[in-house]
Amino acid sequence: MVATENSIIVTDKAKERVVKLIEEAGHGDDPSYFLRVSVVGGGCSGLSYKMDFDNQLKPGDQVFEDKGLKVVTDLKSFLYLVNTELDFSDGLNGKGFTFNNPNATRSCACGESFAV
Q1: Who has greater pLDDT, 64 or 45?
Q2: How confident is residue 114, by pLDDT bands cut at 50, 70 and 90?
Q3: Core domain: from which residue to which, for each copy (predicted)?
Q4: For the whole model, what pTM was predicted?
Q5: Residues 57 and 72 sit within 8 Å (Cβ to Cβ)
Q6: How far apart are CA 6 and CA 50, in angstroms?
């Protein structure tokens, strides 16, 4: 992994899965769509990750590109997501996206929520 200061890093597996999901959602031919990542209150540790597809930038959005994948987050969420790596696992121990967040002080067993 190449260290990138103050950004959101995407692994090759995560990129492949996001591209496939964008295509399945019918947006594969529309380059205006991107991955929106945010942090919302909730989950057993207090904060949860949220991901969806969007094609509208909002004031204050932080825009990143890694491996050709455009990732956007709002400024408040970015404060929690600085230098976080988005990965995807399809192994026997669980399938899905994971966030390797160096800012999290603890996370729940399911890996879907965290605290700082």
Answers
A1: 64
A2: low
A3: 8-111
A4: 0.82
A5: yes
A6: 19
